[in-house]
Design a protein that fits this description.
Layout lengths: L7 E5 L4 H12 L3 E6 L14 H13 L4 E5 L5 H15 L4 E4 L11 H23 L8 E5 L17 H25 L4 E7 L10 H7 L8 H4 L16 H12 L10 E4 L13
Parallel strand pairs: 1-2, 1-4, 2-3, 4-5, 5-6, 6-7
Helix pairs in contact: 1-2, 1-8, 3-4, 4-5
Length: about 280
C-alpha cells in the first residue's frame, strides 16, 4: 500500500516543474490525479510557460505509475474553468482528498510592468484561492490542502527602488498573502478535520528558475546573464552550500502533508529552503 493509496489529488500548474513532480510523486504512492494547467504563455512573463504537450507528458508519467489521471487546460484566474475541470475529474475518479495549489508565475521585470503586478497577484494569490474554493465543497474529514508559498515570502526585504519591478515585488507579496490565507483557512477547517498547510520552497530547479529573467535577478550587473554567470550567486539564498533544490524535494514534503502521517499537522508553514530562513531570522518561539 502506498502512502496516499486510493486518494485523489487535484493539482494546478501540473504540466511541468514542481506541479508535474507532485503529480508523479503522489501517483507513485497510490493517488489518482486531476491535473490542470494554463498551457499557454502569459504576456507579462518573460520565460516560456508550459505547453499542451507538457501536460500530455504529465499524463504519460502518471499513467506509467499505473494510476488514473484526468487532465484539462484551465486558467486558475477563471473559477468556472477550475470548477469544470474538477467536477469532470471527480465524476471519473469518484472523490477528492488532496488539493495542491501549485500554479504560479514570476514576472520579473515584466512588460508592461504593472501588468506583471496584476498577473502575479491574480495567478499566485487569487489562483490559489480559486483552486481551494473550487475544491472545498468536495472535501471531507481527513482531506489535505497544500499551497505553494516561497522562501521569498519569509524574507525581510525592503525595496531599494519602489515601483521599479512590480512583477518581482508582486511575487513576494502574493506568496506572503498566500501564507496568511492558509493560516486562517486552517483555523476555519480544523473543526472539520480538514488540514491546510503551506510549503515554502527555496530556489527550485525548474524552468522558472532556469530563465534569463531569474538569472538577471541574481546578476543585476549583467544585461544578458547566463546560467554560468548566475550559478555562483544562487547559494546566497540558502544557508546550506547549494544553488537550488530539486522539484522532488518539494514533492516529498507535499506527499508527507497529503498523507495520513501528517493527520494532525495543520496551519504549518513548512520550509524546504536549505536553511534560507535561518539567514534572515532569529529564533522564533
Amino acid at each position: 500500500m502506498g502512502r496516499v493509496q486510493g486518494k485523489v489529488a487535484f493539482i494546478t500548474g501540473a504540466a511541468r516543474g514542481q506541479g508535474r513532480s507532485h503529480a508523479v510523486r503522489l501517483a507513485e504512492e497510490g493517488a489518482d490525479i486531476i491535473a490542470v494547467d494554463i498551457c499557454r504563455d502569459v504576456e507579462s512573463v518573460r520565460y516560456a510557460m508550459a505547453t499542451p504537450e507538457d501536460l500530455e507528458e504529465t499524463v504519460r508519467l502518471v499513467e506509467k505509475q499505473g494510476r488514473r489521471i484526468v487532465a484539462a487546460q484551465a486558467d486558475v484566474r477563471e473559477p468556472a474553468q477550475l470548477r469544470a475541470a474538477l467536477e469532470r475529474g471527480i465524476a471519473e475518479l469518484g472523490r477528492l482528498d488532496i488539493v495542491v495549489a501549485q500554479a504560479g508565475i514570476a514576472p520579473m521585470k515584466g512588460n508592461p510592468p504593472l501588468q506583471g503586478w496584476a498577473d502575479v497577484v491574480d495567478i499566485n494569490l487569487a489562483g490559489s484561492v480559486n483552486a481551494v474554493h473550487a475544491a472545498l465543497p468536495h472535501l471531507s474529514e481527513g482531506a489535505s490542502i497544500i499551497v505553494t508559498g516561497s522562501t521569498a515570502a519569509l524574507m525581510n526585504v525592503i525595496a531599494e527602488d519602489p515601483g521599479a519591478d512590480p512583477g518581482g515585488t508582486g511575487y513576494q507579496f502574493s506568496k506572503r498573502a498566500v501564507a496568511e490565507y492558509v493560516h486562517e483557512l486552517a483555523r476555519v477547517l480544523a473543526s472539520r478535520s480538514i488540514r491546510a498547510n503551506v510549503v515554502h520552497p527555496t530556489n527550485t530547479n525548474t524552468p522558472m528558475l532556469q530563465s534569463e529573467p531569474m538569472y538577471q535577478s541574481f546578476r543585476k550587473d549583467l544585461e544578458h546573464p547566463t546560467l554560468e554567470d548566475a550559478l555562483p550567486a544562487f547559494p546566497a539564498m540558502q544557508a546550506m552550500p547549494i544553488p537550488w533544490v530539486e522539484p522532488v524535494d518539494i514533492s516529498n514534503a507535499v506527499l508527507f502533508l497529503a498523507s495520513d502521517e501528517a493527520r494532525y499537522i495543520t496551519g504549518m508553514q513548512l520550509r524546504v529552503d536549505g536553511g534560507g530562513y535561518l539567514k534572515s531570522h532569529d529564533f522564533q518561539r
